[in-house]
From TrEMBL:
<dbReference type="InterPro" id="IPR053544">
    <property type="entry name" value="HMG-CoA_Synthase-like"/>
</dbReference>
<dbReference type="InterPro" id="IPR016039">
    <property type="entry name" value="Thiolase-like"/>
</dbReference>
<dbReference type="GO" id="GO:0010142">
    <property type="term" value="P:farnesyl diphosphate biosynthetic process, mevalonate pathway"/>
</dbReference>
<dbReference type="InterPro" id="IPR013746">
    <property type="entry name" value="HMG_CoA_synt_C_dom"/>
</dbReference>
<dbReference type="Pfam" id="PF08540">
    <property type="entry name" value="HMG_CoA_synt_C"/>
</dbReference>
<dbReference type="GO" id="GO:0006084">
    <property type="term" value="P:acetyl-CoA metabolic process"/>
</dbReference>
<protein>
    <submittedName>
        <fullName>3-hydroxy-3-methylglutaryl-coenzyme A synthase protein</fullName>
        <ecNumber>2.3.3.10</ecNumber>
    </submittedName>
</protein>
<dbReference type="InterPro" id="IPR013528">
    <property type="entry name" value="HMG_CoA_synth_N"/>
</dbReference>
<comment type="similarity">
    <text>Belongs to the thiolase-like superfamily. HMG-CoA synthase family.</text>
</comment>
<keyword id="KW-0012">Acyltransferase</keyword>
<keyword id="KW-0414">Isoprene biosynthesis</keyword>
<feature type="domain" description="Hydroxymethylglutaryl-coenzyme A synthase N-terminal">
    <location>
        <begin position="4"/>
        <end position="175"/>
    </location>
</feature>
<keyword id="KW-0808">Transferase</keyword>
<dbReference type="GO" id="GO:0004421">
    <property type="term" value="F:hydroxymethylglutaryl-CoA synthase activity"/>
</dbReference>
<dbReference type="Pfam" id="PF01154">
    <property type="entry name" value="HMG_CoA_synt_N"/>
</dbReference>
<feature type="domain" description="Hydroxymethylglutaryl-coenzyme A synthase C-terminal">
    <location>
        <begin position="195"/>
        <end position="408"/>
    </location>
</feature>
Length: 444
């Protein structure tokens, strides 16, 4: 079978930054450490007045195409994953293609375009679709562009306000990829849940605490599904990127994952001297007693050197970017992969042919866990990211400015304020068309 996977990646952050411990926490009367230590977040990215899911997606795609020397004719498919769509019919991919056609020779009339929806897991589903399309031999030599783009804003006063963010990740899916191959092993955990939803409304209805339980429950099912296809061991994987609604959630997901994949292995035996064997359901009278024992075991586990070493090597490097941008919904797990590869390159870590276990999740709810293999040549590709420059260039907004920008992006309000930053060499939102469509232009 041809090797297919992620050939290139680009990251585009919203141009504004809200400092969570310094600016947001004091206004909320909260301890800044709830953000830095509890949630694991330092800042959220926000879109300026002229930014939205289309501009961020198109700007990421343009940098990717320029860098790889691509023309529209090289792309046979454009899929956008988002849960922030402003149009129930016309997919964001058509708007993005329209933007790109304004700056490139040629057009995307030959390209199949769509929009994928399943909360935050949709970005991974779009990658799967693109991989399948190429593996089915339908791509006629062309690559696919997958763009995960979101403005993750919550209603003012909602507990989710602490975890907001805005940005896009563009990925080129192709044969003989430079970054990672997407391998056939794939596990799912999927159930009809009402943890986070937007029934014809812009801002989500969220049961935050429940969504955290559902995240873990679906992840467990997806792990079991993977285990039905291959054995898993903690040392199999060099990197384990999770969907990151906030880094603190990944701390919980990682502990569950490690406990699960070390069960029945030499690692469980090795740890038994220190913290005992893992609780087994058959040894307990009821579910509650079993769950209490599991919680106690997990607390002990996360305090061991063996676990810490595993976490610091495979999970901590995936969180670096997210800590400074917040939740990007569909893009978050892809940000996690990029963050780990970036840190590995900077630290001189050899990841050639190493395996990754990629753990995606979308509320509503579905987890997908799949395996990727890092391709030789990944360092050169990941070195091209300019995310650090972008993060540094964001304007640090005050709380009053945050209140204004939140209103600008609220569809129910008409708030007309000047942009906080000056766009340069980027696509911008440029007003409304005669049928209520959003219009865009490229600013030199
Ligand atoms: N120092 C250190 N840690 C602190 C702290 C302090 N001063 N204050 C609070 N914390 C910790 C809490 O103990 C908690 O960690 P824990 O879950 O490990 O116990 C964490 O910080 C968050 O605090 P909490 O009071 O639970 O925050 P919250 O009520 O504002 O809600 C969410 C947090 C995540 C539920 C909320 O932001 C939300 O609804 N987010 C959107 C939904 C979401 O992202 N779901 C995830 C699955 S997709």
């Amino acid at each position: 079978m041809t090797t297919v996977g992620i050939d290139a990646v680009e990251i585009r952050t919203g141009n504004l930054k809200l400092d969570l411990p310094e600016t947001f926490a004091p206004e909320k009367g909260e301890d800044p450490e709830k953000y830095t230590k509890g949630l694991g977040l330092h800042a959220s990215s926000f879109p300026d007045v002229y930014e939205d899911i289309v501009t961020m997606g198109a700007n990421a795609a343009k940098r990717l195409m320029d860098r790889k020397g691509l023309e529209p004719d090289d792309i046979g498919r454009i899929d956008v994953a988002t849960e922030s769509a402003f149009d129930h019919s016309k997919p964001a991919s058509t708007y993005i293609a329209g933007c790109l056609e304004d700056v490139y020779e040629g057009d995307f009339h030959h390209a199949n375009k769509g929009e994928r929806k399943f909360a935050c897991v949709a970005g991974t589903q779009a990658v799967d679709d693109a991989v399948n399309w190429i593996q089915a031999g339908k791509n006629r030599g062309r690559a696919a562009l997958v763009i995960a783009t979101d403005t993750a804003l919550y209603e003012r006063g909602d507990s989710g306000e602490a975890t907001q963010g805005a940005g896009a990740v563009a990925m080129l899916i192709d044969e003989d990829p430079s970054l990672t191959s997407v391998d056939p092993v794939q596990g799912f955990g999927s159930a009809d849940e009402t943890d986070f939803l937007k029934p014809n409304q812009q801002f989500p209805s969220v049961d935050g605490k429940r969504s955290m339980q559902v995240y873990l429950a679906r992840m467990r099912e997806a792990l079991q599904d993977v285990e039905s296809q291959r054995d898993l061991h903690p040392d199999d994987f060099a990197v384990v990127p999770f969907h990151i609604p906030f880094p603190g959630m990944v701390r919980k997901g990682a502990a569950l994952g490690f406990r699960h994949i070390s069960r029945g292995t030499d690692v469980e035996e090795e740890l038994a001297e220190e913290i005992g064997m893992q609780p087994r359901r058959e040894d307990f009278e009821d579910d509650e007693a079993f769950r209490d024992a599991l919680t106690e075991y997990t607390d002990d586990l996360t305090g061991t050197d063996r676990y810490r070493e595993w976490y610091d090597r495979t999970v901590e490097p995936t969180l670096g970017i997210s800590r400074h941008v917040g939740n990007w919904y569909t893009g978050s797990v892809h940000l996690a992969r990029a963050s780990a590869l970036k840190e590995a390159r900077e630290g001189g870590r050899d990841l050639d042919d190493a395996e990754m276990m990629v753990c995606s999740y979308g509320s509503g709810a579905q987890a997908e866990i799949h395996i990727e293999t890092v391709q030789p040549g990944w360092e050169e590709e990941i070195a091209q990211l300019n995310v650090d420059e972008q993060l540094r260039a964001r304007k640090d907004i005050t709380f009053a400015e945050y209140e204004q920008i939140h209103e600008v992006h609220n569809y129910d309000e008409t708030t007309d304020i000047d942009a906080f930053t000056t766009p340069e060499e980027e696509f911008v939102f440029d007003g409304w068309g005669r049928m209520g469509e959003r219009k865009y232009t490229y600013v030199e």
